Structures are given as C-alpha cells and as structure tokens.
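Practice problem: predict the structure.
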Amino acid sequence: MEFFLLAVIGRGGLSSLYELQKRAGLEPGGIRPALTRLEADGYLSRGEHEARNKRRLGLTTKGIHYLENNWWFSLQNFPDFESVLRATAVALLMGEPKTARTYLETTSFQRSQSGKQKEAEAGYTPVNSDALSFYRWMRLFYEAKRSHEEARVLLELRETVKGELYNKEELR
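Answer:
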C-alpha cells in the first residue's frame, strides 16, 4: 500500500484524501495509518490546513528518491488480488507498462500453479467420511477454482495494458 500511495501522490498527481477516494477508490480511514507511517518516515509531507480542513499531500525529496529507486519492490506475489492490482498500477505510474505486463503474466502463472496444487490436494471427489474432511475439501476446491479464475483475469488484464497509454511524460 505504501508504494501505491507514494506513486499515486508523486506520479498520479493526487494530493488530497478526497482525490485518493474519488480517483483511486481508497477509503480515507483505511489509508490513514499508511499515510501516517509515510509521513513519520519522512517520505510524505502534509501542507497546512486549507478550506474545509483539507491538507495537501506531497512527496518529500526523500520520498521521491525512495519511490524512484525502490518501486519495483512492490512487484511481489501477493496472496490478495487487490495488492496485485495496486502493484500493477505502481508499475504503470512509474511509466513501465512492459514491466506491468510481465508482472501480470508472472503472477497469473503463479496463481495457476497454486490452483493446480490445490486441485491435487483436494482430489477430484470429496471425502465424505466426516463433516470436517468435507469442509477441508470444499475449501481446497474453492481455492483451486479461485486461483484459476484469478490467473485468467490477470492474463486478460495483461492484454489491456498498452505501452502508449502509460508513459512518463503523461504522468508527470
């Protein structure tokens, strides 16, 4: 989340909680702890109170350098899908559509492999020996199907990323 916030503020031009909510779909209550950490670590600054108690957000010099030199650490195999989407957006905001496409493809492959592993663990037919065994099978079955569907969606998203739409000049 921290890299995403740095990127949307520093590269996406969002400078208020309102803009983060309206343009990025982030809930202020959910991101306040991350913003507080970024400010405490010296990566983010908040301006003086303006009208309606609004405070402008901006990256410090330290924050700009940190984002520029470390953003690619955000490209991990996250267990939750939302983090994968945020990491993809970071790559795009950094003007790296090819990296975003590669990340989506790699993450899709990892999800697919995870689905295959869960299918193997679950087996093809449920074990009805007892309720808890059946519960375990249902979870593995669901997780396998979810992993395969996420893999498919990631490949579909990969195909929608076009290099000419995300370049550094447009984002600065």
